Known about the structure:
Layout: E1 2-8, H1 14-27, E2 32-39, E3 45-52, E4 55-60, H2 66-78, E5 83-89, H3 98-101, E6 106-109, H4 118-131
Parallel strand pairs: 1-5, 1-6, 4-5
Antiparallel strand pairs: 2-3, 3-4
Amino acid sequence: MKIITLKGKNNSGKTTALRNLYQKFLKMAGTKKINFFHEGADDSDFTAELIVRNNRIVIKSIGDGISWIRDGFQYAQTNNADVLINAWNSNLDKKYNVQTELPGAIVINNPISICAPLQDEWKRFNDDIISRL
């Protein structure tokens, strides 16, 4: 399974980037939505499962605690995902290692700055992820 991990500080745009990517996937021809559910204390995070370009993709936006990271990895494995795209709060680096928890993960640091001119940043980020499928 290929793993793409967005790593950043609290409120740095990880969930927003993953939500935007999910919406982009849904607009692509041939995409099939398998599952979607909200998570977290305020339901702002989510897990989504879809088929994109013949790849079973799991997106897990909640990455503030190691249990959420492990849950997403297990969910992706159980559902035979080809790709897991998830978030990793950089505060976890104090106690955990991305490569130990998510072997072989491609880590994208600070995916999108909240203050960036978003149209170009979103397009560049989405194109980068899609090119890795």
